[in-house]
Amino acid sequence: MAAQVTMGTAVAAVAVPLMNAADGLFTAHWVAAGQATEANPLMAACLTAGPAAFAVTKMALAVSGTLVLLGCSKRFAARAGLACMAATYATVCAYHLHFAFFA
Fold it and tell me: Quick one: CA torsion of 11, 14, 15, 18, rounded to 10 degrees?
């Protein structure tokens, strides 16, 4: 029988990949415009390989991490990890939006 997932966990599990995609779009835009650099060395290498490699790698890593934590969501540590991922991506997206509108 599949484990029951709380509403908060489900929302976080959907929000993380969506915010990851937004982060990827913003990052690719800022880097292409010469206004930023990718801080993550792995993602920087993928970005130099091209936007498709960057997008596929970024989404694969975020979705796989989300699915692992969702699969272990009976454990408090997994739920906390997913909540931390959601909070981190929310902060990153807020930074991107601030940079887009106020910088």
Answer: -160
Q: Are 42 and 48 in contact (CB under 8 A)?
A: no
Question: What is the structure's pLDDT at 29?
Answer: 94
The answer to whether the beta carbons of residues 85 and 12 sit under 8 Å apart is yes
Domain that holds residue 69: 7-33+41-102
CA dihedral 95, 99, 101, 102 (to 10 degrees): 110
Residue 28 inside a domain? The answer is yes
Give 10-residue mean pLDDT values along the chain (103 residues). 82 98 96 93 95 96 97 95 97 95 85
What total of structural domains would you count in the chain? 1
Note whether residue 46 is domain-resident.
yes
Count of beta carbons in the 10 Å neighbourhood of residue 9: 19
Q: Which of 92, 72, 91 is nearest to 82 (CA)?
A: 72
Assigned domain for 48 exists: yes
The verdict on residue 1 lying in a domain is no
